[in-house]
Amino acid sequence: MCDTKEKLTMKNFIPVNQPLLSGNEKKYLAECVDSGWISSEGPFVKKFEKEFSKRMGRKYGIAVTNGTSAIDAAVEALGIGPGDEVILPTFTIISCILQIKRCGAKPVLVDSDPITWNMDTKQIESKITEKTKAIMVVHIYGLPVDMDPVLNICKKYKLRLIEDTAEMIGQTYKNRPCGTFGDISTVSFYSNKHITTGEGGMILTDDESIAEHCREIRNLYFQEKKRFVHHRLGWNMRMTNIQAALGLAQLERLDEFVKKKRWIGNKYNELLNNLSGVQLPLKKTNYASNIYWVYGLVIEKSLNQDSFEIMKNLSKNNIGCRSFFYPLHQQPVFTKEGLFKEESYPVAEQLYKKGFYLPSGLGITEKQIIKVCEILIKIFKTIEV
Ligand SMILES: Cc1ncc(COP(=O)(O)O)c(C=O)c1O
To answer: How far, in Å, is the centroid of ligand 1 from the Cα of 162?
Structure first.
């Protein structure tokens, strides 16, 4: 919202995200250029797939162009199609629903938990029909979805599980790494993620045939024997050697990055502790401690104020910020065709109206966090109760 090109060049502007690229990134990128390996055929791709999947605790990793395409591939690889239903949260990015819609399946939504902001797992079972084929969980902002109830439901009804781990690289649920729960788990390496390749993503699975299918999907369904003969419509989702080089350098520092994210979150917690009228992110649950992918705030209902005024004000003060997700059931692209008509998900609707997040990229300094908090506290003092 606030980090326009003009602002990014301003000295005092604090962007909503700034990556840390001070490890082996330059060295590995230079290797790409020096060797001429810049396409997806280069050696860094396989190396990154191997190292990343190992770090995440999965057998296979298939590197792709972004987190959205990883989800598209997951839906295709599980054979989801017309007549099938997939349950997912309404409070998420549009990426989660695209291929479900495009393939002719029916997206079935659930609301969020008002405290963790994740999908309310208590609502899932009542949405199951005989057409339900899969559940898609999406870990949001810093805490994972409560996975035990989801796993039980999947087992009970024999459902497939897609786990969107875009925002949760390095997080655990009851000490088990996020990214290990799905029949297919997906990851994003966009520049605001815990590790980045600029744009990029990964599909994770333990199933060899799913892995092989995802490699075919990623590569236009080319066949080995009759290369230019195609039996299905595929995608070009190939990650380049350049992206993988970046990813490998970033992966080397994942533990450090996770620690820094938690440090950023705790610093904000400490400085905003006395700010009234606002819900800070939950520090921990009985299954995880917050990893603060982003530092989100929700303005309490008692304040007659939504997040947009505050974000405008932050922007005027050279501070980058973002609103929370706009719920899927309210997206004009769906409402105009009558999809989700008469459905309401009050928690997600409130989260969009009242939620926003502060600069929380890995490159942020303590001085910048202090400045953000000082300005935010000042802005809140001007709000009439
Ligand atoms: C939960 C979630 N899923 C998927 C994506 C899509 O990833 P990408 O931007 O790499 O396509 C994002 C992006 O931020 C995300 O937050």
So the answer is: 14
